[in-house]
Amino acid sequence: MVRLAPSILSADFSKLGEQVSLIEKAGAQVIHVDVMDGHFVPNISYGATVMKSLCGKTKLPFDVHLMIEHPDQYAEDFVTDQTEFIVVHQEACPHLHRTIQHIRSLGVKAGVAINPATSLSTLDFILEEVDLVLVMSVNPGFGGQKFIPSALAKVEALKQIKEMHGLGYEIEIDGGIGLDNVEEVIQAGVELVVAGSAVFGAPNIDARVKEFLNIFNRS
Ligand code: DX5
Ligand code: ZN
């Protein structure tokens, strides 16, 4: 089953609780939490306190996307009863294997993300260990950017490797996803679809979530 993970980076923070309830009622399955430190990416977003303020206000699981340096130091802060994934960037982790094991030891699923210019081959020796691979289809740091099509080839390759070796990771895509290209990424093999501005920037958020889910159902 393909799941929709709206990114609250594009939400109206003055009414974050309400907007999260809205996407939950509309049928979104996951909340994507973009954490930026102003070092790994040229922007600062929010930290664990903001995410934890949603605990109990929604039943949806959190998909925590850490766009930060030294993620080992901060991963534990993002562990809650609702945390499904903690995702770190390959480019930020000189000891990626250790970081992945650390996240798993915290009792949550561990994911790895790669930037558009990073080759999939950098993950050759970690694919067996991860629960999720996040393919960035924009350069991380900001919402509302244009989809970079080379991400599709990475998704297709990940799907093939997964099937060939019977691996268990989910495939996620993040950046520039809208109603116009979501079908294509699902066909390529994506199972977790992040959408920020396409959901929270829509004139009618409820209707937009449902439009995405309708496309998932017929894909
Ligand atoms: C980008 C973030 C994304 C972002 C996606 O650095 O990782 O999750 O919120 O936003 P859209 O869907 O607007 O490209
Ligand atoms: Zn993200």
From TrEMBL:
Binds 1 divalent metal cation per subunit. InterPro entries: Aldolase_TIM, Ribul_P_3_epim, Ribul_P_3_epim-like, RibuloseP-bd_barrel. A divalent metal cation binds at residues 32, 34, 65, 174. Pathway: Carbohydrate degradation. One of its GO terms (molecular function) is D-ribulose-phosphate 3-epimerase activity. It comes from the Bacteria. Keywords: Carbohydrate metabolism, Cobalt, Isomerase, Manganese, Metal-binding, Zinc. One of its GO terms (biological process) is pentose-phosphate shunt. Its EC number is 5.1.3.1. It catalyses: D-ribulose 5-phosphate = D-xylulose 5-phosphate. Its cofactor is Zn(2+); Co(2+); Fe(2+); a divalent metal cation. GO terms for cellular component: cytoplasm. Substrate binds at residues 7, 65, 141-144, 174-176, 196-197. Belongs to the ribulose-phosphate 3-epimerase family. Catalyzes the reversible epimerization of D-ribulose 5-phosphate to D-xylulose 5-phosphate. PANTHER family: RIBULOSE-5-PHOSPHATE-3-EPIMERASE. This is Ribulose-phosphate 3-epimerase. The lineage of its organism: Bacteria, Bacillati, Bacillota, Clostridia, Peptostreptococcales.
